[in-house]
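tokens incoming
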């Protein structure tokens, strides 16, 4: 068992790799980033493309927060964007926040954190919040995890760095998402993302144009289109 240096948090990491941001976030879609995939998830969505990261059984790296910051910055020197995904990163909230503090002590980067919206998003210290953008993947009926009460989990300190992404698997998902937007006044960046394969981007775009959802971005997973991780 690893010894805990100076009260640092121990985190479970599935993988660290370099790729492009295939989806919307504040670092820009298509930008090169270092990805940190956290292990463990509280959901099991039928369209999940990273089922290998849903639990803590199997191939998992253990890192203390400071060690992970050093590993990422040394191995991927010069990459200014970091994308934290899962699994569900907020299941390891204390480790995540400690890791962000360690990053900020060493350098200034742009960090995008992807979360499924089922866990309340913590308020961060102002200095940390300036380098973080949340991407909330709001779950709709086809995911099997839809609960409109999850809207209460959105961050109170919303900034221009944050996105709400609705993953659309069918017409019902689309109508539910549209109804949420009609009822609520959000100051987030908004995106609709078709489940691939299944929902064709052209079909989803047609619905968006028909309903004049001009403030919503069509998010297509470009990393899948060019066949990379």
């Amino acid at each position: 068992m690893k010894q805990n240096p100076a009260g640092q948090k121990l985190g479970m990491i599935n993988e660290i790799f370099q790729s492009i941001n295939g989806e919307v976030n504040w670092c820009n879609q298509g930008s090169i980033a270092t990805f940190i995939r956290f292990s463990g998830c509280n959901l099991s969505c039928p369209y999940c493309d990273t089922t290998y990261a849903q639990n803590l059984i199997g191939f998992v790296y253990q890192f203390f927060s400071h060690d992970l910051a050093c590993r990422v910055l040394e191995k991927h020197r010069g990459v200014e964007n970091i994308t934290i995904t899962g699994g569900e990163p907020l299941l390891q909230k204390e480790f995540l926040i400690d890791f962000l503090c360690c990053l900020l002590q060493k350098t200034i980067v742009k960090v995008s954190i992807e979360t499924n919206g089922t866990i309340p998003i913590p308020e961060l210290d102002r200095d940390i919040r300036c380098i973080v953008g949340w991407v909330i993947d709001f779950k709709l009926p086809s995911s099997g995890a839809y609960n409109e009460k999850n809207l209460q989990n959105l961050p109170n300190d919303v900034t221009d760095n944050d996105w709400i992404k609705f993953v659309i698997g069918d017409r019902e998902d689309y109508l539910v998402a549209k109804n949420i937007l009609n009822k609520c006044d959000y100051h987030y960046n908004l995106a609709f993302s078709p489940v691939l394969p299944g929902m064709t981007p052209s079909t989803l775009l047609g619905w968006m144009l028909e309903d004049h959802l001009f403030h919503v971005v069509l998010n297509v997973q470009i990393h899948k289109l060019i066949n990379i991780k």
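note: The radius of gyration is 17 Å.
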